[in-house]
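Onboarding guide, step 5: your first structure request.
Type a short instruction followed by the sequence, for example:

Predict the 3D structure of this protein.
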Amino acid sequence: MGSPTVGVVGLGNIGGRVADVLLAEFDVVVFDINDDAVAPLVDAGAAGCDSGAEVGRRADVVLCSLPSDDALIAATLDDDGVVAGLEAGDVLIDTSTVSPGASARVREATAATGADFLDAPVSGGARNAKTGDLVALVGGDESVLDRVRPVVNTISRTAHHVGPAGAGATMKVVNNYLFALNQVALAEGLTMARAAGIDDETFAETVAESSGGSYALNRNMERFVLPDAYDSEFTLDLMAKDARLGETFAAKNDVPLLLGGASGLYKTASALGYGDLDSSAVLKLYEALTDKE
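The system replies with structure tokens like these:
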């Protein structure tokens, strides 16, 4: 593909940082419905566009980073959406965490233009997006992935080709469902330790070196729980959405979720006013139930 022009649509916590990383290697065009998200990237050297369709026309490879099914559908399939600007030879890469059904709708519309599509949601959060150290979970034709590897490798430390079209979207739903459960398990374990008089620092140090250790423990304790500061890297409301995506996928595919119900816990924590905090703030639900503040 040579050195493609790369477009980014959706400039939130992940997309904005991805676009900034891409600027070091490629000509970049960007669009977001929030002009305030576009301005700093234009100042850094990106070209701003008036619509997703303009990004599709100007870019050879377009990355979408949107927060929900509805946002993805609007950004890609509306009259001025990305797909309207695509042509044969272009590649649309969706890095969003969305349902496999929404991903399939965009894939089918993309195919009708002659362009190619990869569902390639990313894991690692804003801090890894900032440094190009995300993990991409890619579904679709591997030969298409090979064509755009310079782009994917710029934003990620690892790109896993996990299967055919739809496999990437599904794998990310499964991954985030597991993370949602792991955070709840951590909150329950910490609450039990507190009930026994074990301080949070001792809990974190001990469990990290024991069989109960997890990514959730390593991520959440030092950065959020110990300082009791929950400025969001990934909001609790988004975690509720992702857990719900997992539960919906399981129900549609007759998969029993014997540990299910995680989305309800996050939704309850959100109702208590913690929705805009980091997802690790699900612990606040347990604190409220045990009268610990």
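Each response can be followed by summary notes, for example: The chain has two domains: 6-163, 171-289.
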